[in-house]
Amino acid sequence: MNRSTFEAVALRIAFVSLMGFIGMSVQPFALSAAIGALLGIATAVAAMLLAVRLRQAEPHHLIAGFLGCVVGLCLGLLFVYAYVQAGITPGAVAQFVRIALPLLGGYVGLVTGLANAEALPFDLVIAPKTAASSLTTKLLDTSVLIDGRIVDIAESGFMEGRLIVPRFVLHELQLVADSSDSAKRNRGRRGLDVVQLLQKQPRIRLEVSGEDFPETKEVDLKLIELAKRLQAKIVTNDFNLNKLAQVQGLTVLNINELANSLKPVVLPGEVMRVFILKEGKEHNQGVAYLDDGTMVVVDNARRMISKTVDIIVTSVLQTTAGKMIFGRFDERQQSIGEPRASAATSTATP
Prior knowledge:
Elements: H1 3-26, H2 33-56, H3 59-85, H4 92-115, H5 131-135, E1 137-140, H6 142-147, H7 149-156, E2 161-166, H8 167-177, H9 182-199, E3 204-209, H10 219-230, E4 233-236, H11 239-247, E5 252-254, H12 255-261, E6 271-279, E7 285-289, E8 295-299, E9 308-319, E10 322-329, H13 332-348
Parallel strand pairs: 1-2, 1-4, 2-3, 4-5, 8-10
Antiparallel strand pairs: 6-7, 6-9, 7-8, 9-10
Helix pairs in contact: 1-2, 3-4, 8-9
């Protein structure tokens, strides 16, 4: 348990203890000390649960709920005023109505405001997002969470700002983690572990969005709709989602493209030292791999399998799957020593 987590837990325990002590001391509603303490503890727990929900809510949902609550309270007070002006004799029922109507109106207004948050014109009351704030909002796809390299990118400081994981993406990860196939199950669990690791990164702020689109079934289409609504970028490794989002004018961050761009630049004519691992498809070809996984196809290197040789780069091919390097093994390096060896042998022969 790190220091921040320990402080948060200690603060919650102190708050619950304080509310329990107040309830035991005040004994509201003429309750006993024990029941008053339980009431104080229950109130503290309810307040902490409400704080968690408010922290996860979107800003426009909070504003819609607040406006709805204020309107509901005003309507409730208006009904109470009309009730009092009607001249009804005050009593237990009247006192209950005076308290219950504003509370009921506020609750109904809160629920109504939250339910209709998307339909309200918040552009009139909220300052439009700046370009910097919209650029730092990124949506994480299922594929990039399963891949896991985003954790290393975040630790290096190249991934920062506000990251959002939609709840429907977490649901898809859960379905993969519950699969009967062990390979899929491990991939799903890895994706869930990556979410937890990102939550612990100090440079980023990971949020779980509860926004959903029930009329849309596919997760990729839901992600695109959410990116349009939030004016956010999509972080993915999915080739089809990449193309579909770009067609609709969205910015996509593809980690595979980032990895390809970070591979060392090799120019034709350069000399490379590689280890010939296996035979190539064409005649007299050998295949080698660089440390980053780049395939190197070498001509005239079939007989050099399991050996480290120097090759001359002839061309570089960039594809969507990655980069391929083509080279040629120069046999003249071997032929230089062969005549000398033969000459030495002839000299030694009587």
